[in-house]
Amino acid sequence: MASVSAHNLALCALALMNFVFVFGTGAEFVRFVSFRVIYHNITGGPPLCRDSVSWAEALRDGAVLRAAGVDLGLLALFAAQHSLLAWAPIKLACQSVMGVLNRAFYCSATALALQVLMRFWQPVTSAPCLWSVSSAPWDTWFPLLCFTVHFLCWAIICSILLIFDYPELLGIKQVYYECLGLGDPLSLKSPRAQRLYAHLRHPVCVELGVVLWLLPTMPLDRLLLAGGLSAYLALGHSLDKQDCDYLSVQLHSKLHLFTLPQEGSTEPNNHKKD
C-alpha cells in the first residue's frame, strides 16, 4: 500500500509540475504575442521596422535573411514537434512508455517547444513594416483598440479552455482518475465527444487568429509568426458536419442552463406553500 501511495504521489507531483510549466508558458506566450507590438505603439520604444528602406533592399540584407531564416526554422520545429507527437504510431509508443502521463508529456513537450521559439525568436528590425498606424489620432486610439480586443480574445480563450475540460486537456484529470481507479476520463465521454476531440483539440482558432493579425504595426517577423501559426491551425484541424452539429447541440444545452433558474425560481415558493 505504501508503494502504491508513493506511486500515486509521484504521479500527482509530475502532473502538478506539468500544469505549472504549461500555465507559465501560456502566460508568457500571451506576453510574446500581444504585448511587444501593442506596448511599443502605446508608449513608444525602439523601432520594430525601418520604413526608410525598400523591400528589394531589405530582402538583399543578410541580417534580414538570417533572422527570417531562424524564425522560419523555429516555426518548423514547433510544427514538427506538435505534429509528430500527435501522429498515431508515435502517440501509441509514447502511451506505452508514459502511460497515464502521456497527455501531460505531450503538453510539456509543446510548452518546451514554445519556450524555445520565444527565447530564440529574432525580431526583423531592418525591413519595412507591412503596415503601421502612425498618423494622429489613430496612432494612440488604434493601439488601445487592439489592446482591448486582445484582452477580450484572451479572456474568451481562457473561458473556452475551462469549458472544454481544461484538466483533461493538460493531463491532470488522467492522473486523478488513475489514482481513484476510474480509468481514462476520455473513454468515459460519449463517442461524439471523442470524435470531436480527435478532430479539434484547440478550440480557440478564431480568437487566436484575431490576436495574431490585429496589430497596429506588422513587422516582417510578426508576419512570419502570424502566417505560420495560422496556416498550422488551418491545416491541423478537420471539423466536419457531424462535429459542427455536436458543437451546436452542446452550445444550446449550455445556454439552456442559464434559463433553468429563472424557469424553476417559483418551485421553492410552491414547496414552502405546501
UniProtKB/TrEMBL annotation:
GO cellular component: nuclear inner membrane
Annotated membrane topology: Multi-pass membrane protein
Similarity comment text for this entry: Belongs to the nurim family.
Localization per record: Nucleus inner membrane
Transmembrane segments: 63-88, 100-121, 141-164
Keyword entries, A-Z: Membrane, Transmembrane, Transmembrane helix
Entry protein name: Nurim
InterPro entries, per the entry: Nurim-like
